[in-house]
Specification:
seven-stranded mixed beta sheet, about 0% helix
Length: about 120
């Protein structure tokens, strides 16, 4: 089992940047694919990006391509989501989740961090 904690959310103006971190407990962090998901008010949760345990493969939603970059540092048990050129529609609670493979299922979830982008 793995426990996840997200940090780095906050309030930013449109066009700005934020870097989210997802830090995990446990000594087998590199065995897990990590995904970032978000849920905006009154909307369904949606996939943002994911990275394989080795970091060798990544996958992003169309809404994230060209603006968001996912990366990981297994020595620090941390996955990052660098978000650039933020838009008001990126406002959501961002959560990270762990799975045994890139395609899921994502069974272990963090509590989420709020990202608010003002216009």
């Amino acid at each position: 089992q793995v426990q996840l904690v997200e940090t780095g959310g906050g309030l930013v103006q449109a066009g700005g940047s934020l870097k989210l971190s997802c830090t995990a407990s446990g000594r087998t962090f590199g065995s897990y694919a990590i995904g970032w998901f978000r849920r905006a008010p009154e909307k369904e949760r949606e996939f943002v990006a994911a990275i394989a345990g080795s970091g060798g493969s990544t996958f992003s939603a169309d809404s994230a391509k060209g603006r968001f970059t996912i990366s990981r540092d297994n020595a620090k048990n941390t996955v990052y989501l660098q978000m650039n050129s933020l838009k008001p529609e990126d406002t959501a609670v961002y959560s990270c989740a762990a799975a045994m493979s890139l395609g899921g299922p994502y069974n272990y979830w963090g509590q989420g961090t709020q990202v608010t982008v003002s216009s």
